[in-house]
Amino acid sequence: MSVLKRLWPALLGILSILGLWQVLVVVTGVPGYVLPSPLSVMQAFASHQQLLWHHAGITVIEIVAGLLIGCISGLGTALALARFHGLRRTLLPILLISQAVPLFALAPILMLWLGYGMTAKIVMATLIIYFPVASTCYDGLRQTPQGWLDLAQTLGADRRRRLLRIQLPAALPALASGMRMAASAAPIGAVIGEWVGSSQGLGYLMLDANARMQVDLMFAALLILVTFGVALYFTTDAVMRRLMPWHEDRIGATS
Amino acid sequence: MSVLKRLWPALLGILSILGLWQVLVVVTGVPGYVLPSPLSVMQAFASHQQLLWHHAGITVIEIVAGLLIGCISGLGTALALARFHGLRRTLLPILLISQAVPLFALAPILMLWLGYGMTAKIVMATLIIYFPVASTCYDGLRQTPQGWLDLAQTLGADRRRRLLRIQLPAALPALASGMRMAASAAPIGAVIGEWVGSSQGLGYLMLDANARMQVDLMFAALLILVTFGVALYFTTDAVMRRLMPWHEDRIGATS
Amino acid sequence: MTSLGFSLSHARLAFSGQWLFDGLSATFAAGSWTGLLGRSGSGKSSLLRMIADLPIPDTHALTLTTSDQRPLAGRLAWMAQQDQLLPWRKVIDNVLLGPALRGRPTAAQRQRAMTLLDEVGLSDKAEQWPKTLSGGQRQRVALARTLFEDAPVVLMDEPFSAVDAITRLELHELAARLLAGRTVLLVTHDPLEALRLSDRILILSDQPASLSDFEVPGGQRPRALDAPDVQRMQSQLVARLHSAPHTNNEGST
Amino acid sequence: MTSLGFSLSHARLAFSGQWLFDGLSATFAAGSWTGLLGRSGSGKSSLLRMIADLPIPDTHALTLTTSDQRPLAGRLAWMAQQDQLLPWRKVIDNVLLGPALRGRPTAAQRQRAMTLLDEVGLSDKAEQWPKTLSGGQRQRVALARTLFEDAPVVLMDEPFSAVDAITRLELHELAARLLAGRTVLLVTHDPLEALRLSDRILILSDQPASLSDFEVPGGQRPRALDAPDVQRMQSQLVARLHSAPHTNNEGST
Amino acid sequence: LALVLIASGPAWAADDDDTTQTTSLKVMLDWYTNPSHAPLVIAQQRGFFERHGLDVELISPADPSVPPKLVAAGKIDMAISYQPQLHLQVDQGLPLVRVGTLIATPLNITLVRADSDIESMEDLAGKSIGYSVGGVEEVLLNTMLEHNGVAPEDVEMVNVNFALTPALIGEKVDAVTGAFRNFELAQMAQEGVKGRAFYIEEEGVPTYDELIFIANRDTLDANRDAYTRFMAAVEEATAWIINHPDEGWKAFKASDPALDTPVNKKAWYNTIPRFALRPAALDGHRYDAFESFLLERGQIKAKSPLSRLAVDLSQP
Ligand SMILES: Nc1ncnc2c1ncn2[C@@H]1O[C@H](COP(=O)(O)OP(=O)(O)OP(=O)(O)O)[C@@H](O)[C@H]1O
Ligand SMILES: Nc1ncnc2c1ncn2[C@@H]1O[C@H](COP(=O)(O)OP(=O)(O)OP(=O)(O)O)[C@@H](O)[C@H]1O
Ligand SMILES: [Mg+2]
Ligand SMILES: [Mg+2]
Fold first, then answer.
1. Cα-flanking dihedrals φ and ψ of residue B102, to 5°?
2. Among all ligands shown, which has an atom nearest to the Cα of D40?
3. d(C-alpha A221, C-alpha A45), whole Å
4. Of A44, A82, C129, E69, whose CA is between 20 and 30 Å from E165?
5. Inter-axis angle of helices B38-47 and B215-243, to 10 degrees?
C-alpha cells in the first residue's frame, strides 16, 4: 500500500527519535521526573494500556471533529472572502484579530460558556485549525493566474462558478499545504481544551499524570498524541493528493 | 501612507468588534468575571498603563526575537530539505513529530534546561513559528514549475544556485503566506512561554490577572497583544510584498 | 444564428504614459473574417483584450457598438495567445469548460466536444491530462474549446502558431467551416494565413499605431495557397509589413 | 571555439506503453544546422529534451556520442517551446540567467546581454518585468537568453513561432550570425524557415516515428527567400510532409 | 549541555564557606504572588533577608507542579509547595525535603454555593466537583466523601484547572475542591455569591501544613546555614505582619500595583492567623501521621522515615 509506504519514513523517524532519546537519558542521567526514558514510557504504556486507549478514543473524536469543522469552515470563509468583495474589508481584520488572540487566554471563558464537555474541546480544536486554513486558502484563491480568470470571464462564468471551478482548483496546492499544517495542529487544540477543564481525554490524562508525578504515563499519553498527529498529517496529505491527480510535486514529498 | 491605509480596515474591524462586544455584554448581562465590558477593560487599561507597558515591552522583544529566529530557521530547514535528498527521509518526519507535540507539554522540560528567563520564552515563540514556516516554505519550494527547473539544468546551475535563484523566488508567494500566518502566531508562542514560567510579560500578567479574577486587566493585556499581533501581520505582509515587486495578488489583499 | 457585426472607435491604449495607439477605429462587418497583422509588440493582443472587455492594467478606452446595439458580452469567444488549459481538467473537460462554467455540460455537449476533438485530431487524447500534451496539441485543444462556444463574434490570437504546416492547413479548413457566418478577428504572424482566411486584412503599425487596410484576393475562404493571387499578394503584403516602421525598439518619446 | 558535432543512436521513447519512436539515430555534424520538422505531437520536443538530458516521465533511452567523446552537459543551450521567463527577474536579468546560475554576472556580461537585447529589438524593455511583455517579445527575450549562452550545441524548439514575419527574418539573420559554427538543431513548423536556415532537414514521421532526410538548397545560410531553389523546394517539402501519415489521431495499436 | 548544568547544582554552592558575603537564594513560589506569600514579600521589602545576609529572588510559576521539579533538579534553591504533594514526590524518589513551614494549617476546603441544596458533604452524591491539580486532591476528596458515606464513584470529577471560582459561580460544577479558605471565599464574596465551605480537617483527613518550604536534600547540608537564616527572616516578617496588619497590607500592595485588589485585601486579613509563627520548627508527628494516612490509602509505595521528609533547621 502506498499509504503504508508513505508512513514508513515517519515510523523510521519515530524510532530514531526514540533511540536518541534513550541514549540522551542514559548518557546525561537526567532524572526520570524530568524526562523519563523511552523504556519506562513503554512500560507505563503497557501497564496503563486500557486507560490510555480510553482517553485516546475521546481525544481522537475531538481532534477529528475539530479538524473537519475547522477545515470546512476555514475553506468556507476563504471562499466567502474571495467571493464577496465587501466581506473582505470587515471580515478579514476580524479574522486576523481572532487569530492573534491566544486561544488559551479565552479557553477558560470558552469553558465557562460551553461547559466542560466535549463541545468545548471541539470548539478549541476547530478554532486552532480554522484560521490557518482560512488564511492559506484565501491566499491561494488570490493567486489564480490572470489568464484563467480572463478565460472564465469570456466564457460567461458567474462569480460563483468562477470561484468553484477555476479559483478553487487552482488554489488546491496552496490549500493542501494549509490543510497539512492544520492536521498537525489539531491535536494541540484538543489538548489545550482538555487542559483547561475536563474529566476525560489524553490532555486530561497528561495533566493528571503530571500532577501525580507519573511523568512516564504523561509521556505515554504524549506518544499516542504525537503518533496520531503524524498519522493525521499523512492522511491529510494522501487525501489532498487524491484530490489532485493532475498535480505532482517537483520533489517527492516523503520519498 | 500606504501602510496606514492598509491598517485602516483593521482598525475599523477592531472598533466594530469592540462595539459588538459592548452590546453583547450589556444585552446578555454576562458577569464581569466571564467577559468584562470593553469599557471596563479600557478603565483597567488606563489605571494600569504603566504596568501594562512594562510587561508589553518584554513580550514584544520575545515575540520579535521569536519571529525572526523562527522564520530564519524555518526557511533554513525548508531550504535544507529541498537541497539534500537524504535529509528529507529523516528530518521531515522528525519535524512533523516535533510539530505534533503540544509544546506546553514540554514546557517544564524546556524551562528546566533553559531556565525561566527570556531565553525560554524566545525558544517557545521560535518553536511555535518554526514549523508552519518550515512546512509552507518546503511545500512552496516543491512546486517550482518543471520548465524552470529544466532551464536551470541546461544552464548549468548547481543545486545550491538552483535552489536560491529559481526555487526560492518561485516559492515566495507560498512563503509569504506562511510568514503572514507565523506572524500572527508569534504572540501566542511568547505568551505560552510566559505562562509556563516567568514573572514578567503580558502572558504572565494575563495569567496572574486571571488567577486573581481581574478579568478586565487580563483583557487589557490581551488587547495589547492582539493589536501587536495584527500589526505584525500587516508588517510582515508589507515586507513580503516589498520582496515581490513583480507579483500581484489577483484580488487585492486588504483593499 | 444571425451574424453580428461590430465596430470600434476611439480605441486608445497607453502603458506607463506611452501611447500604443490612440483614436483607432475599425468596423467588422457581420460574418466577415478580418486578419490582424502587425509587428510584435504593436498591441494586437491588447486590442483583442479591449474588445473582449478584459482587464488591462493601464490607461485604455474603447467605444464599441454592435450591429444590434446590444452589448457584446456573452456573445464572444476569445482564444488567447497562450493556450490557458486548466491542468485539473482532462482534455475533453477543457473543451467543455464553457458549459461547465455556465452550468452543467449535457451529454449532447459532451458528444459535440468529442466530435470537435476528433476534428482537431485529438480524439485519442480526450481522457488525458493537459500536461501530457505537446505544444501543438495544447493549442488545438484551446482551439476546440473556442470553436465549441459557437459564438457570433470570435477573437483569435495566433491560433495556429504552434502547429505544423499540414495540420495548420487542416485547421484552416475546419475553422472556416465551423465559423462560417461568424464575425472573426484573427491575429496572425503568417501573411499567407491571413491571405488565405481573411475577407479583409488590417495592419497595425507606426507608433502610436494606426490601422491600415490591405486588399485581399477575391474568392471563397479558405483560399488555395497556390492561387496566383495569393502568391502575388503575399509578396506585396510582406513588402507592406516591411515598410511599416518597427513599433518598439526606439525608446519612449 | 571549436565546433562540436554529436550523434545519437538507439533513441527510444514511449508514453504509457505506446512507442513514439524506437531506434532512431542521427548524426549532427560539427557546425551544421539541422531543421527538424514533423507533425504536431510526433515527438520533436521530447527528442530535444532527451538530447538535453532533461527528465521525461516515461520509458526512454538514448545513446549520445560527441565528436570529442566528452559529455554534452554544460556545452549545450536549450530553448524550450515555452519562453520560461522568470517573472521575478527583469528582462535583462532573464537574459543574464545563465551567468547568474553559474555565479555572478560580470559587467562585461551585462553589457553583452544589453547588446543582445538591442539586437532582438528590446533594448527599451531591459528594465521591465516579463509580465509587461507581449508574446513575441517574451520569445525574443528567451532567444536572447539562449544566444547569450554561446554554447557549441544549441537546441531550439520553435524559437520564432510567436514573432511577426518581418521580425522573424531579422532574427534569422541574427541567429545565423551569432550561431555561426555552432551545431544547431532547430525544431520548426515553417518549411520556409527550415529551408532558409538548415544545412540539412530531418523529418520525424510515422508511428513509431523515424527520421528521414530532405535535401536542402545549396548556398550560404540564411538563404534569400526569393531564391528559386527555396521556392521550388518549399512545395516539395510541403508535399513530403503531406505524404507522411498523421502520427497521432489513430489510437493505440 | 543543559543537563550538565542541572547536575552541577546551585551555582552559589561554591562560595558557601564565605559567610560574610551575602548569599543569593532563588526561591520559587507555588503560584502567583498572593497574601499567602506575605511573609516573603514583606521580608524582602523591609530588608529582613538582607539583614540576614541573603539576596533573595522570588519567582512565580504558572504551574504549581513545576517548582518541586526545579528544586529537585537543582535549578532553584527553595520552593513553596504543599505538604501532601511532598509525600508523593519523596515517594517517587525526588530528592526533596521540607525545610520550613509557611502556613501551618490546611487551607484546603470543598466549596459549594451557599444557595445550593448541598448542606453537607453527604449531599455531594451525584454531583460534579471541580478541582485544579490532580493527584492528592482527589485522594483528599475521596477520604472526605467516604468519611461522609459517599462513594467516590458517585461524584463526577472535573479538572477545571485554575478556574475554581468561575466554574462554581458560573454553575458549571456543583462544588469545587482544593479551594483555599483564605482566598476563594473572598473571591466569591467579591462577585456577590456566598459560599459554603467544608473544612478538610473536619471531614476525616489528618491535619497538615498547607504551604511549606522545600529544598534539595542532596545539597541541604551545604546550605543549611543560609536556609536557617532565611527562616529567621521569614519568622521576623511574620511577626511584623501580625503586629502591623494594616501597615502590612499597605506595604504588601505597594510591592506590586497589580496586587491592590479588594479580594486580596480581604484575603490578607483572612490569611494572617494562618501563618506559621515558627517557620523552621517541625511537627514531626504531622508528617508521620500523614505518611501513614497516604500509605493506608495506597497512594505511596512505602513509608519514608521522617528524616527523609523533613528537617528541623532549628534543631542543631
Ligand atoms: N508526460 C507525458 N505523458 C504522456 N504523454 C506525453 C507526455 N509528454 C508528451 N507526451 C506525448 O508525446 C507526444 C510527443 O510530444 P512532443 O511534445 O514531443 O511533441 P512535438 O513533436 O514537440 O509536438 P508539437 O509540435 O505539437 O510541439 C505527444 O503525443 C504527447 O501527447
Ligand atoms: N501590463 C503591461 N504593462 C506595461 N506594458 C505592457 C503591458 N502589457 C503589454 N504591454 C506592452 O504593450 C505592447 C503591446 O503588447 P501586446 O501584447 O498587445 O502586443 P502584440 O501586438 O500582441 O505582440 P505579439 O505579436 O508579440 O504578441 C508591448 O510593447 C508590451 O510591452
Ligand atoms: Mg500578442
Ligand atoms: Mg513541441
1. -65, 115
2. 1
3. 8
4. E69
5. 90
pTM above 0.80, yes or no: yes
Residue pair B221/B180 in contact (Cβ under 8 Å)? The answer is no
What integer pLDDT is reported at residue E5 of this predicted model?
Answer: 40
What is the pLDDT of chain B when averaged over all its residues?
81
**Burial per residue of A169-190, b for 16 or more beta-carbon CB atoms within 10 angstroms, e otherwise:** bbbbbbbbbbbbbbbbbbbbbb
Taking 50 as the pLDDT cut, the residues of chain D under it are: 246-253
Contacts for D103 with CB less than 8 Å, ≥ 6 apart: none
Phi-psi region of E125 (alpha: psi -120 to 50; beta: other; left: phi over 0): beta
pLDDT band at B193; cut points 50, 70, 90: confident
Task: Tell me the mean pLDDT in the region B25-40.
Answer: 79
**Most ligand 1 atoms within 8 A of CB, residue of C134, C138, C160, C167 to mutate:** C134
Contact A184 B100 (CB under 8 A): yes
Find the CB nearest B14 among A93, A103, A187. Answer: A93
pLDDT digits (tens, 9 = 90+) for B130-178: 888 888 888 889 889 999 999 999 999 999 999 999 999 999 988 888 8
pLDDT at E192: 85
Percent of chain B scoring above 70 in pLDDT: 85
pLDDT value at position E6?
41
Instruction: Look at residue E7 and tell me whether its pLDDT is greater than 80.
Output: no
Distance of alpha carbon E294 from its chain centroid, rounded?
A: 18
Query: Which runs of E-coded beta strand occur in D144-222?
Result: 153-157, 183-187, 200-205, 210-214
Please tell me the distance from the alpha carbon of residue A50 to that of residue A54, in angstroms, as a whole number. 6
Q: Which residues surround ligand 4, an ion (CB under 5 A)?
A: C 134-135; D 45, 81
Contacts of A226 in chain B (CB under 8 A): 97, 100-101
Query: Cell triple for residue E52?
Result: 540576614
Contacts of E281 (CB under 8 A, 6+ apart): E101, E312, E314
Phi, psi for E128 (deg, rounded to 5): -105, 140
The one-letter amino acid at D220: Q
ipTM of the complex: 0.83
- Name which of A174, A184, A188 is nearest B177 (Cβ-Cβ): A174
**Cα(B76)–Cα(B58) distance, integer angstroms:** 27
Cβ neighbours for E311, distance < 8 A, ≥ 6 positions apart: E97, E98, E99, E220, E282
Number of Cβ atoms within 10 Å of the Cβ of B242: 8
Q: Count of A–B CB contacts within 8 Å?
A: 209
How many CB atoms are located within 10 Å of the residue A155 CB? 26
Which chains form contacts with chain D, at 3 or more CB pairs under 8 Å? B, C
Beta pairing partners, D157: D187
Identity at E65, one-letter amino acid code: S
Which residues 1-20 of B are in CB contact (within 8 Å) with A? 9-14, 16-17
Instruction: Give the tens place of pLDDT for each residue, C30-44.
Output: 999 999 999 999 999
Helix or strand (DSSP H, E) at B42: helix B38-47
